[in-house]
């Protein structure tokens, strides 16, 4: 792995204790790229100038992008994303993060009409993904860890990069510096186990998730998924770092 260009620094927006950078932390440390967390759900705020941050990763969460009344800090977060878009810094959104980016870009986010995707699902790349600098080396079809009940429309001028049988917008690129992923490329085995426990504690028995099938699929699929995460983050940094920093 290459070392990072001098001055590269990532801000990760966090919405819940159990939703962090996960395996991305491992990749960033190997690349020697510093990163910080901004936990907007706890009331933390940050100047919209973003100071010295060169990249933004917007993580997942159990809330919905349209629940601004219940979670007023979502308005602040959307302002922060909008400013990052205006500055043309590199942005990645994961699950809720992808939905928030889509919302800021003018697309609709809503409860999925085909039910939730929770567990490992097949995701298929679109022809446009073959030319995408971050996804072009992914397998044409792969198992991805999903954990969502909402979906979003494709923003105007965005390029769809991946779909599943339930929801066609699984990944998109906007311009040449912004990516949204509906699936959770950042997961580790520990994160998945924590989500299973948290979900089943919050829901009555009929809505609980049997852990064994997901645990078994995780053992089978996680290693290849994390190899894809390596490529994704390395390429994200490489193609979105300003020339003045990478030279």
Protein architecture, described:
The protein is 32% helix and 23% strand. The protein has 247 residues and is of the alpha/beta class. It has one domain (10-246): Class I glutamine amidotransferase (GATase) domain (Rossmann fold, 3-Layer(aba) Sandwich). The model has no long low-confidence stretch (mean pLDDT 93).
Query: How many structural domains does the protein architecture include?
Result: 1
The CATH superfamily title: Class I glutamine amidotransferase (GATase) domain
Low-confidence runs (pLDDT<50, min 5 residues)? none
CATH architecture level-2 label: 3-Layer(aba) Sandwich
Number of strands: 11
- In angstroms, what separates the terminal alpha carbons? 17 Å
Structural class: alpha/beta
Order of helices and strands: EHEEHEHEEEEEEEHHH
Amount of beta strand:
15-25%
Shape: globular
Q: What's the SSE blueprint?
A:
Blueprint (H helix, E strand, L loop, with lengths): L9 E5 L8 H8 L4 E5 L15 E4 L14 H15 L2 E5 L1 H9 L4 E3 L5 E9 L15 E8 L1 E3 L5 E6 L7 E4 L3 E4 L7 H14 L8 H30 L2 H4 L1
Parallel strand pairs: 1-2, 1-3, 3-4, 4-11
Antiparallel strand pairs: 5-8, 6-7, 6-9, 9-10, 10-11
Notable traits:
247 residues, alpha/beta, Rossmann fold, two-stranded antiparallel ribbon, 6 helices, 32% helix, GATASE, transferase activity, Type 1 glutamine amidotransferase
């Amino acid at each position: 792995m290459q070392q990072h260009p001098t001055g590269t620094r990532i801000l990760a927006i966090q919405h819940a204790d159990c939703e962090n950078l996960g395996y991305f932390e491992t990749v960033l440390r190997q690349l020697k790229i510093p990163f910080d967390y901004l936990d907007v759900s706890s009331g933390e705020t940050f100047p919209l100038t973003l100071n010295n941050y060169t990249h933004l990763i917007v993580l997942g969460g159990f809330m919905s992008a349209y629940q601004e009344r219940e979670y007023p800090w979502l308005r602040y977060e959307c302002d922060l994303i909008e400013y990052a878009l205006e500055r043309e810094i590199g942005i990645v959104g994961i699950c809720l993060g992808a939905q928030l980016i889509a919302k800021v870009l003018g697309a609709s986010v809503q409860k999925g009409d085909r039910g939730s995707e929770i567990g490992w699902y097949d995701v298929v790349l679109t022809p446009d993904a073959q030319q995408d600098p971050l996804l072009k080396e992914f397998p044409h079809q792969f198992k991805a860890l999903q954990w969502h009940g909402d979906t979003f429309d494709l923003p105007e001028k965005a390029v769809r990069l991946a779909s599943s049988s339930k929801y066609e917008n699984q990944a998109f690129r906007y311009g040449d510096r912004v990516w949204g992923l509906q699936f959770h490329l950042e997961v580790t085995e520990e994160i998945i186990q924590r989500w299973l426990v948290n979900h089943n504690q919050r829901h009555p028995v009929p809505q609980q998730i049997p852990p064994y099938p997901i645990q078994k699929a995780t053992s089978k699929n996680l290693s290849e998924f994390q190899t894809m995460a390596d490529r994704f983050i390395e390429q994200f940094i490489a193609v979105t770092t300003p020339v003045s920093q990478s030279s």
